[in-house]
Amino acid sequence: MTIAGSLVRTAEGEGFVAPGPSSFDLPPAFSVGGLDVTKPMLLLVVAAVVVFWFFYAASRQRAMVPGKLQYAGESMYASVRNGLGRDIIGSKDFMPFVPYLVALFFFLLVNNWFGSIPFIQFPTFSRASMAYALAGLSWVIYNYVGIRRHGFAGYLKLQTVPGGVTGPILALIVPLEFFSNLIVRPITLALRLFANMFAGHILALLFATGGEYLLIHGAILIKPVGILAWVLAIAIAFLELLVQFLQAYVFTLLNAMYISGALAEEH
Amino acid sequence: MTGSLNMIGYGLAAVGPGIGIGLIFAAYINGVARQPEAQSRLQSIAILGFALAEALAIIGIALAFVL
Fold it and tell me: Does the domain at residues B19-66 carry the CATH identifier 1.20.20.10?
């Protein structure tokens, strides 16, 4: 509790309710046959439609001399294809995964930026279940391609036995690697995305609602602090834009690395 | 004065990843300064390291709310 906060409290007699995890429990927007549809569910669909529409519109003409839209679409596609696909997975195997990586990156980017777009302002992946679903998809994909490439036993050996390790230390390493590579991986992948979006949104909420509280309930000298809090809220929104981009990038980067790790030859 | 001690704990826990991320980017900047043409290679490594170090802080904030 800051000094300003306690001053406000003594002046007013009622406390400021800080935003917490319950701020994310939105009431359902509408129900379809007993199924409650909430805002994040709607945003998920909107993001998928936006990404599909953008790339469909950009690739519809396919002119030899690209127009503005086609150029934008192609350079965005190429940045993921080359920067994440080719450089990480390697030029031999990367092509089958490019559609997944491109779709994943832009889907995440749009969903994350929903957290900073005015009037939407809810990052979809601040609901943990959404992030777990995407991480589960990634888990299925990298295990599937690994098993298809190396066979079940070979893949298990690749993921759990690091090269150059022999002798009794294996008894220690193998369970650890198994745990880390096959069990904890999707959980940290999901938690990283979820908690970043969650923390960013809570920060924005805190500055916005705290500023409002100071402005309305604060003593006369405290009121300007509320304005300052709002200015900081705007600054944080811009910082969040960067974080949201970075998280979409990191999620896709890690996906590419897991796939590349599953496809790697024996080391 | 009321509040949750969890948040103080989380503040302390965030020091570690903070230092770690600082070290990662210091090394990245050093590397690029010495060899600018390696930037594209170093960038993905730096961001990967940043994400892994940051995960500790992130797990911390999740636990601070949960516990």
Answer: yes
Partner residue facing A253 (CB), from B47, B54, B62: B47
The amino acid occupying position A255 is N
Per residue in A205-256, pLDDT (tens digit) is 888 888 888 888 888 888 888 899 899 889 888 889 988 998 999 999 999 9
Each residue of B5-57: pLDDT tens digit?
888 888 898 999 999 999 999 999 999 999 999 888 898 888 888 888 887 88
Whether ipTM > 0.90 holds is: no
Q: How far apart are the CA of B41 and the nearest CA of chain A, in angstroms? A: 9
Pull the structure tokens for residue B7.
């948040």
Q: A36 forms bridges with which residues in the sheet?
A: A31
Say what the pTM is: 0.85
At how many degrees (to 10) do helices A3-12 and A185-217 cross? 50
A83 near A105, Cβ under 8 Å? Answer: no
| Alpha-carbon dihedral angle through residues B51, B56, B60, B61, given to the nearest 10 degrees | -10
Distance CA B11, CA B17 (A): 11
Residue A190: both structure tokens together: 């999901």
**CA A163 vs CA A28, A149, A158: distances in Å:** 51, 18, 9
The Cα–Cα gap between B6 and B11 comes to 9
**Rounded to a whole number, what is the distance in Å from the CA of A145 to chain B's nearest CA?**
22
A105 and A51 in contact (C-beta within 8 Å)? no
Select the residue of A87, A198, A199 nearest B44 (Cβ to Cβ): A87
Interface test with chain B among A250, A251, A253, A257, by most B beta carbons within 10 Å: A250
